[in-house]
């Protein structure tokens, strides 16, 4: 059955071929949603949207560009009449040690992961408020919960922990308007974010820390996003959902 029939969803950072965003877009489309993919590269965003079928839209958008984000969302709301679902998935990471984080590293990682999540949410909250309905899903990370230890540096952990705080504060403030806000904390999922950057030693030590003994797949994260976006989770807000093969059992 289609869980998102007739719904309109915006997914950021969803042009990456093996990424969590595109896997989520595919599953949402399969469940009846119309999708807009926002990503840095226009051609990649359009190609990803075309792969989903007709009616889906791909647009170039840098999530840290406040006015650009607003323009894109306004254009979508003009076209669709509303936005029901936002998945703040765009993110970058850098494997740095604490003393090696430069001002530029800090800005880049904090901005895309955290500022981008804020700006994209601000751009859809008015239409969701008008409709008294909406679901916002933010990609955090197990790195936020356990202080890294997988790939990203301390600035990435801080940004993703910031996403958790923002998620909970937005959930609290937006609950009276029936807008739910939740975070997904993926563990290690094999995508291009780490592709070619992990040594065999790093990979085996990561696997050793996962009770299920293997990395996750993008589809396994998408399933959780579908749950949080749809009415299956109608009474779930302000939560952080672990999708990590047991990496954080405590
Ligand atoms: P990915 O690198 O495959 O995809 C990230 C996408 O974000 C890319 O398409 C990229 O172009 C886009 N992007 C980057 N900066 C952007 C910006 N300023 N504006 C718009 N788009 C931008 O990565 P992924 O593994 O699919 O990661 C998706 C999300 O999940 C990220 O937020 C990441 O931090 C998070 N995450 C991933 C893992 C993992 O193991 N793969 C684990 C935990 C969390």
From TrEMBL:
Pfam families: adh_short_C2 (PF13561). InterPro entries: NAD(P)-bd_dom_sf, Sc_DH/Rdtase_CS, SDR_fam. GO terms for biological process: fatty acid elongation. GO terms for molecular function: oxidoreductase activity, acting on the CH-OH group of donors, NAD or NADP as acceptor. PROSITE patterns: ADH_SHORT. SUPFAM superfamilies: NAD(P)-binding Rossmann-fold domains. Belongs to the short-chain dehydrogenases/reductases (SDR) family. This is SDR family oxidoreductase. It comes from Paracoccus aestuarii.
